Q: What sequence folds into this?
């Protein structure tokens, strides 16, 4: 057990779409919820599908972008409970004011920072232990606003040669975000869709580990498995499916690895403060 104070907020981000962000967000959230934490998984991708894949009817629900928009939905009104008491979700919702500016103007903030901050404060006040935020691809607009406010960022990446090449650049870009958010803990790259029986997939992962420092690549890997597609078709985390136990164990390992990193960085921060 780690003893981090208050809510822990984790952004799940990548430069490109289709790398497994949503899948990782949902299944990691489920692993945290199973461990007894009160968890909120937030869909911050206007084209996203956390809501869709967990409830299958969220298109008309209000969500995160409604909270951020001028019309301002309340925090409580955008929370959707799941069958699991410790796991709730926030769909992306309808508020489209912000997704308008999404896609151009690289590097800038969208101006939603104050809204993101107040949302996370509301989550803390509501007693959530962990917020996992599934962001849109890219590091600009709302996604950047989010990364400026969260404690940590996890970067899923498909374990295949082409995708892996852009990773050092992505991490450089994240380091720049740290100028705006010095406490941002870059948890590192999480290799996803790893095909352990395919040489190219394994080599892509090994190649990444050889060019990046150890602390920037998660030890845990997510295997490619058809069960993820079955789970999302049924609107469920993999862990609740028959045959999902093995995958759930991988996400438990990921959860523990993240907890350990966060405890260590908190202790380091404390030591630095005491040293001053
Ligand atoms: N580990 C995996 N094994 C097999 N399929 C996966 C895995 N992770 C994701 N997928 C599938 O790949 C597609 C893209 O994943 P998704 O999580 O939606 O990516 P993103 O949110 O980054 O766009 C989805 O159809 C999803 O079901
Ligand atoms: Mg997604």
A:
């Amino acid at each position: 057990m780690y003893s981090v104070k208050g809510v822990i907020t984790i952004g799940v981000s990548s430069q490109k779409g289709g790398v497994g962000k949503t899948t990782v967000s949902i299944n990691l959230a489920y692993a945290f919820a199973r461990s007894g934490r009160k968890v909120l998984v937030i869909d911050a991708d206007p084209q996203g599908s956390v809501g869709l894949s967990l409830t299958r009817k969220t298109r008309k629900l209000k969500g995160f972008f409604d909270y951020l928009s001028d019309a301002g939905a309340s925090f409580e009104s955008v929370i959707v409970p799941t069958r699991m008491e410790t796991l709730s979700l926030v769909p992306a919702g309808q508020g489209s004011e912000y997704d308008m500016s999404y896609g151009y103007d690289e590097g800038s903030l969208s101006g939603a920072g104050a809204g993101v901050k107040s949302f996370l404060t509301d989550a803390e006040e509501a007693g959530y232990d962990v917020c996992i935020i599934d962001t849109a691809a890219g590091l600009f607009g709302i996604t950047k606003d989010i990364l400026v406010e969260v404690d940590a960022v996890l970067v899923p990446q498909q374990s295949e040669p082409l995708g892996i090449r852009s990773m050092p650049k992505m991490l450089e870009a994240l380091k720049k975000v740290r100028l705006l958010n010095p406490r941002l803990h870059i948890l590192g790259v999480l290799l996803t869709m790893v095909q352990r029986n395919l040489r190219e997939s394994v080599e892509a992962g090994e190649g990444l580990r050889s060019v990046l420092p150890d602390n920037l690549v998660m030890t845990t890997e997510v295997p490619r498995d058809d069960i993820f597609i079955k789970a999302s078709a049924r609107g469920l985390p993999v862990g609740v499916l028959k045959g999902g136990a093995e995958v759930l164990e991988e996400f438990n390992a990921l959860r523990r690895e993240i907890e350990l990193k966060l405890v260590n960085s908190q202790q380091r921060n404390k030591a630095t403060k005491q040293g001053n």
Notes: Residues 220 and 257 are 8 Å apart (CA to CA). The chain has one domain: 8-275. The radius of gyration is 18 Å. The chain has ten helices and seven strands.
